[in-house]
Amino acid sequence: MHPSHDWFDGLRLITACNDDHFEILQQMYRSRPFVEEELWVAKITRVLTTGPPVLTLVQLACRTGLHEAQIRSAIAWHNERRHPTT
């Protein structure tokens, strides 16, 4: 996920230069599980930090392509990691 470029949305296929490079990329991504909420947080962050201000949840949904439930889930996921309970 890139902070300002929509093209780098975390969903595109990766490209490797050769088999060795591909193996390195595979190992890197295998050790880190994919979490949809993390992708959604990145999309929300990009929208909130670039372009015109977002004033409503509807605007945020339109600009991120996410549904309200996904936005709420992403916020909860983010907040849980930012302020972990003890």
Q: What is the arithmetic mean of pLDDT?
A: 83
| Low-confidence regions | none
Oligomer: single chain
How would you sum up the major sheet?
none
How is this structure best summarized?
With 86 residues, the chain is mainly alpha-helical.
Note the main attributes of this structure.
extended; mainly alpha; 4 helices; 86 residues
Question: Would you spell out the secondary-structure blueprint of this structure?
Answer:
Blueprint (H helix, E strand, L loop, with lengths): L18 H12 L5 H14 L7 H8 L3 H15 L4
Helix pairs in contact: 2-4
Task: Report on this structure.
57% of the residues lie in helices and 0% in strands. By secondary structure, the protein is mostly helical. The model has no long low-confidence stretch (mean pLDDT 83).
